[in-house]
UniProtKB/TrEMBL annotation:
<feature type="region of interest" description="Disordered">
    <location>
        <begin position="405"/>
        <end position="487"/>
    </location>
</feature>
<dbReference type="GO" id="GO:0016020">
    <property type="term" value="C:membrane"/>
</dbReference>
<keyword id="KW-0813">Transport</keyword>
<dbReference type="Pfam" id="PF16010">
    <property type="entry name" value="CDH-cyt"/>
</dbReference>
<feature type="transmembrane region" description="Helical">
    <location>
        <begin position="373"/>
        <end position="394"/>
    </location>
</feature>
<dbReference type="InterPro" id="IPR006593">
    <property type="entry name" value="Cyt_b561/ferric_Rdtase_TM"/>
</dbReference>
<feature type="domain" description="Cytochrome b561">
    <location>
        <begin position="210"/>
        <end position="403"/>
    </location>
</feature>
<dbReference type="Pfam" id="PF03188">
    <property type="entry name" value="Cytochrom_B561"/>
</dbReference>
<feature type="transmembrane region" description="Helical">
    <location>
        <begin position="277"/>
        <end position="297"/>
    </location>
</feature>
<keyword id="KW-0732">Signal</keyword>
<feature type="compositionally biased region" description="Polar residues">
    <location>
        <begin position="405"/>
        <end position="416"/>
    </location>
</feature>
<feature type="signal peptide">
    <location>
        <begin position="1"/>
        <end position="29"/>
    </location>
</feature>
<protein>
    <submittedName>
        <fullName>CBD9-like protein</fullName>
    </submittedName>
</protein>
<feature type="transmembrane region" description="Helical">
    <location>
        <begin position="309"/>
        <end position="327"/>
    </location>
</feature>
<keyword id="KW-1133">Transmembrane helix</keyword>
<feature type="transmembrane region" description="Helical">
    <location>
        <begin position="243"/>
        <end position="265"/>
    </location>
</feature>
<keyword id="KW-0472">Membrane</keyword>
């Protein structure tokens, strides 16, 4: 009794240890399992996970030549389930993967090979037949019974030794909920949530004969001729795509529109620069996360999806935009407020970047197999658009209101300048000195040079808003006030 209590305590301790340090755990010899194998009627070796969400059975009869018989049973609470033969890690494994068919009333078997630690690719060369019992049962289990005829004892990149009592194998279970429903054995998949390593005894199945060659699995199946080596969560690489989305949406729907509003409405140049540079940092990190996520998935590894192409294009244009903005700003300061020709391209490019970036986000969610989140994105987009245009129109309305009672001549002379001047006039000293009293020749970012106060120089970016052209904001020019007044 004391010994068994001690054994139990040690067992519990080692389980706890294995939970925190899953890697160094060493497998017991799987032949130990044969000792308590009282129910080996089918002669198959069987592995069942502790949570019973996945089971795998295999026979390697001598009579099967280069073939194998196997069964895979996976609960439909998971997106997919898979077993890999030959290795304790993905690279080089032959993978049998199971998910629902498109109708959801049967299974799709997807044989795959893994070349690295990323989504395995469809292995079309595997020759197999589906056997009786394949389908979905009322308990919500998908079951595959198969006879593999060829390319399952060796495959490009790996092999199993059918006479080995201790063959290496892995398993994985997809995300909770939202099961994959696809008839295509090459369907795009999300990353695994749970993974594990087990060893399975093929030697003990070599002499099965007759009906026993075919494997089967049901609710009563238990682990026989197999041993779990380690199991755990499938890592946190799925967070890469989550943070890619968070960073990008924060940049394109938060920071960049805020930066645009600051320059359009207030002419707050320093804040505009600061916020757009912060946005760029978020975008750089977001691009890094996006690229590293792309390497995990077959559909993304060659960077041919519109989301990736448009996204990288926007990133390139953003780089140009930064250069443009800083060049414009520097020249403007150097020339004491003489307008530069870069103002209009800078503004147009800015709006283009935000629009295209948000469009790209809408393509990103289905690409990540998370189409349902597009409604959140749509809601955010509508909210941000409403706030941005609301602010623009509010500003316009304030200007119009302030204009009432102004001499009509000033409005006729320079509507865009005069409005701004009229707007700020009631607030004493708030850039009102920059209101032109004459009618200057209209030019890009014109600022009355006769009043070359230092105030004007830093307000260069606001001059964009005085440009002609379409858009709801072109007469929303901010008064050319000093950043000091704002900060
Ligand atoms: C499911 O598919 C298998 C293999 O194609 C087939 O044998 C079986 O009859 C199907 N089950 C149902 C319910 O359609």
């Amino acid at each position: 009794m004391r010994l068994s209590a001690l054994t139990r305590a040690f067992g519990a301790a080692s389980v706890a240890f294995a939970t925190f340090f899953p890697l160094p755990t060493v497998a017991q010899s799987s032949s130990n399992n044969d000792n308590n194998n009282n129910d080996n009627s089918h002669g198959q070796s069987t592995f069942v996970t502790k949570d019973n969400l996945l089971a795998f059975a295999i026979t390697a009869p001598d009579s099967a030549g280069r073939g194998l018989y196997f069964s895979l049973r996976v609960h439909t609470s998971r997106a997919w389930g898979a077993v890999g033969l030959g290795k304790e890690d993905m690279p080089g494994s032959l993978i049998f993967l199971l998910h629902l068919n498109a109708a959801g009333d049967n299974v799709t078997f997807s044989p795959r090979t893994a070349r690295g630690r990323y989504e395995p690719e469809h292995f079309a060369a595997l020759e197999y037949d589906l056997l009786d019992g394949t389908g979905v049962d009322e308990g919500g289990y998908m079951t595959l019974n198969a006879r593999c005829r060829d390319h399952c004892r060796s495959w490009p990149g790996g092999a199993v030794d059918a006479f080995d009592p201790d063959q290496k194998a892995i398993y994985a279970l997809g995300a909770l909920g939202a099961p994959v429903r696809d008839d295509d054995p090459d369907a795009p998949l999300g990353i695994h949530r749970d993974v594990g390593v087990f060893h399975i005894d093929l030697r003990r199945t070599n002499d099965v004969a007759g009906e026993e060659v075919a494997t089967r699995l049901d609710d009563d199946s238990v682990t026989r001729g197999a041993v779990l080596v380690r199991s755990g969560r499938g890592g946190n690489r799925h967070l890469q795509s989550t943070f890619h989305a968070i960073f990008m949406i924060f940049a394109f729907l938060g920071l960049l529109p805020a930066g645009i509003v600051l320059i359009h409405i207030g002419g707050w140049v320093r804040w505009h620069i600061f916020i757009q540079v912060v946005a760029f940092v978020f975008v750089v990190v977001g691009v890094g996360l996006g690229v590293s996520t792309s390497l995990l998935y077959q559909r993304a590894r060659n960077f041919r999806d519109p989301h990736q192409i448009i996204g990288l294009f926007v990133f390139g244009v953003f780089l140009i935009q930064l250069g443009l903005g800083f060049t414009h700003h520097t020249r403007f300061k150097k020339n004491a407020g003489v307008p530069t020709k870069l103002a209009l391209p800078h503004m147009i490019l800015g709006h283009f970047i935000v629009t295209l970036g948000i469009s790209s986000a809408f393509l990103g969610f289905p690409f990540a197999l998370k189409g349902q989140y597009m409604y959140v994105l749509l809601g955010l987009t509508i909210l941000v658009t409403t706030v941005v245009f609301g602010l623009m129109f509010f500003k316009k309305w304030l200007q119009r209101r302030a204009n009432r009672g102004q001499p009509t001549s000033s409005q006729q002379q320079q509507p865009w300048r005069a409005q701004a001047g009229a707007n700020v006039a009631p607030r004493a000293g708030w850039g009102s000195t920059e209101t032109p009293t004459h009618s200057p020749p209209r030019a890009f970012g014109y600022q009355p040079t006769g009043q070359s106060s230092p105030q004007i120089r830093l307000s260069d970016m606001s001059s964009q808003t005085s440009l002609g052209g379409g858009g709801p904001t072109n007469d929303d020019l901010g008064p050319a006030h000093t950043p000091k007044a704002m900060l």
